[in-house]
Amino acid sequence: MEQVLANGLYLGAQYALIALGLTLIFALMNVLNFAHGQLYVLGGFVTYTIYGQLEMPFVAALFAAAVTLALVGGLMERFLFRTVLKRSVREESTMLLAAGTAFFLDAIILLIFGEKQRGVPKIVDGVFNWDFRLIMPYDRILIGFLAIFAIAAFVLYMQYSKTGRALRALAQDRVAAQLMGVNVDRYSMIGFALGAMLAGVVGGLLVTITGVNSGIGGPISIKAFMMVMIGGAGVISGAIAGGFILGMLESVGLSVLHSYGDITYLMIFASLMVFLSIRPQGLMGKPWG
Amino acid sequence: MSQLLRFTDVELYYDHVYALKGVSIELNEGETVALIGANGAGKSSILRAITGLQGIRKGEIVFDGNRIDRGFGPDAIVKMGIVMVPEGRRVFPFMSVKDNLLMGAFTRTDKGGINATLEMVLGRFPRLKERYTQAAGTMSGGEQQMLVIGRALMAKPKLLLLDEPSLGIAPKLVQDIARSIVAINRDEKVSVLLVEQNSRMALRISHRTYALATGSVALSGESTALLEDERVKSLYLGGEVS
Questions:
Q1: pLDDT greater than 60 at residue A100
Q2: CA–CA separation, B36 and B208 (whole Å)
Q3: How distant is the Cα of B17 from the closest Cα of chain A, in angstroms?
Q4: A157 close to B (CB below 8 A)
Q5: For residue A172, what is the nearest residue in chain B, using CA coordinates?
Q6: Which residues of A touch B91 (CB under 8 A)?
Q7: CATH number of the domain that B197 lies in?
Q8: pLDDT confidence band for A218 (50 / 70 / 90)
Q9: CB–CB of A178 and B75 under 8 A?
Q10: Which of A7, A44, A87, A143 is least crowded, fewest Cβ atoms below 10 Å from its Cβ?
């Protein structure tokens, strides 16, 4: 029991961080970024290169992943999404653009980093063992706490910084925010960069536990959408709730349904269909919190 | 009195449909000027042209001696000292009253000055102080109107643009809003350009008024004189009770 809960919390924290990035971009620009999982993979590979290959400190690698992905996110907004949003009259255009960007990034990642599964040396050794009721390697515990710390930092930043306030204002009423002097172009770019950075940070954190390979971008994107749908699109608290719920479901499913074969995600998808047909706006569905 | 805002022969189109055809108006420092007229007469388009939300096709707009009709986005216009209270209030619904007010001061960096303005706004609208941490979207229409006027004042504007502040507000509160507009103009030395469907209220609280009809100025003059004008009475005040 304790073991299942701890696994769920650890996984949930990573998932929540992924969902936060996706929901931030959605709330600001009304764009579902299908390439979110690829940004996660990119963060994993940057960390792998700097920490695993070049053997520099893990903190430096994580920092580099964050900066690189913020840069990639900023460029994506500036040269892809902004141009399309300005000129297109149909919302589907940005969805296609996002899907195209996902395939493009998949190909780039494959070209640069190859198709092999990559892992890195453990960041800390040892295993925490509480009477065999709860067994957890120290590196998982550390990564879990780092993710929770990042979530807290993001929430506080959105709530109390001037930039965070402007981003929330922009998400709630674009025109009113403009009339208060917020430069929509600049702050959309900042928001996109921030969202991409979150995906990159999780990629950098999880590469130390599960490793990374070029094919997992798509599945990660799908999980991110599920979390956002569970919690309610565009809501900070919804993304966090969705992340922890999915993490917990996965953890419970893997232990309870283990004997019936690999059906955890089948069950999760089925329950999600039922849940959404009852509550299509998600748990905390409103434009922005 | 020095001139703060001038429109010269401004034409504005939405796609191929004109909203303003050759509008010329002026506003002097310290004045409250009202724009009245029916729906679609072009009142709000004048405000949209000033704030840069909508580009103009011909003519020029001069503010404080500088042309502002080309190459300035809404955020640049705010920095020059023009702030608009949009129609339908548009509070940030899920943000607290406090955060809404702080958003008003977005372009300012002087902490001490921002706090002083915040004190002034809360003093002027004590209701906002009571609701300080409440989400703005949960307040009544009248309270929201006070909030967005307060939010605009937080920017310390030279010119305040008000788009239909009485729309959808309980009649009792319209009086309060009208009084605060007069007080703000008088005490804070903010010039006001007021767009109103409620012509009687607009004529009463403004120094001068322009009456618009289908995209151009039909009548203009001192508000007290226009209140007695037979044409204004029949066209704009007919049947209105307030």
A1: yes
A2: 11
A3: 19
A4: no
A5: B92
A6: 173, 176
A7: 3.40.50.300
A8: very high
A9: yes
A10: A87
Residues in A 69-98 with any Cβ partner in B closer than 8 A: none
Contact B59, B10 (CB under 8 A): yes
Q: Which of B86, B93, B102 sits opposite A179 (nearest CB)?
A: B86
Closest residue to A172, CB basis, from B51, B78, B93: B93
pLDDT band at A286 (very low <50, low <70, confident <90, very high): low
B227 domain-assigned: yes
pLDDT at residue B99 tops 70: yes
Residue B144: domain span? 3-91+139-235
Per-residue pLDDT tens digits for A70-89:
999 999 999 999 999 988 88
CB contact A176 to B (< 8 Å)? yes
- Both tokens assigned to A189: 């770019």
Domains identified in chain B, total number: 1
Q: Which of B53, B78, B92 sits opposite A181 (nearest CB)?
A: B78
> Which of B84, B93, B102 is opposite residue A179, by nearest beta carbon?
B84
Per-residue pLDDT tens over the stretch A114-125: 999 999 999 999
What number is the ipTM of this complex? 0.91
The domain made up of A2-278 has a fold known as ABC transporter involved in vitamin B12 uptake, BtuC (1.10.3470)
Report yes or no: B45 and B20 within 8 Å, Cβ to Cβ: yes
Å between A164 CA and nearest CA of chain B: 11
SS (H, E, C) chain B: CCEEEEEEEEEEEECCEEEEEEEEEEEECCCEEEEECCCCCCHHHHHHHHHCCCCCCEEEEEECCEECCCCCCHHHHHHHCEEEECCCCCCCCCCEHHHHHHHHCCCCCCHHHHHHHHHHHHHHCHHHHHCCCCEHHHCCHHHHHHHHHHHHHCCCCCEEEEECCCCCCCHHHHHHHHHHHHHHHHHCCCEEEEECCCHHHHHHHCCEEEEEECCEEEEEEEHHHHHHCHHHHHHCCCCCCC
Which chain A residues have a beta carbon less than 8 Å from that of B50?
A: none
Give Cα separations from A170 to A175, A228, B91 (angstroms): 8, 19, 12
* Inter-chain residue contact B155 with A180, CB threshold 8 Å: yes
Residue with tokens 């295993």: A127
In percent, how much of chain B has pLDDT > 90? Answer: 87
